[in-house]
Amino acid sequence: SLQGQDSGTPDAVDFEEHFTQAPEPRVDLLWVIDDTGSMAEEHAALADAFGTFAAALSTAGLAWQMGVTTTDVTRADAGQLRGDPWILTPALPDTVSAMREAASVGTDGSEPSSGLGAAWLALSDPLATSENRGFRRAEAGLHVVVVSDGDDAGDEILGFDTATAMAALLDDAAATSGQP
Q: For strand 140-147 and strand 26-33, is the pairing parallel, antiparallel, or unpaired?
């Protein structure tokens, strides 16, 4: 039998559609945790909260990664991300335990502390391209969480206005990544 007009049946038509699915929103989380002697209770509360925090990240459908450093900018490794691995992701076998381990920063840090100074060190060179390489991703929003019970002393320790320097660093990062 003939197809088309002669048989009354239309010819077969191939039709293709292509879709591009938007990727999960990317978020880089930098935790700067005060490691001075007055923080023991806060460390315990933070460790207890990481299960809820990890669940919230999962529910939000974010492509997240997390790094932890301390507020002690007088150390030789100031601003360096802690833990093994130093970048935590949801792909780890036990994400909550890894979060708790990285956030177990101890209470032997030096005063005065500087959450902004440590964040600035962690996110800028040379650490950003050496020890902390891979933490900042293109097109990822950056969230910096400083957990401390004291005032920030970045200006005193680093010798420059850390609030202004941090704001400039974040503005540059946002302009480069296209994300806030």
A: parallel
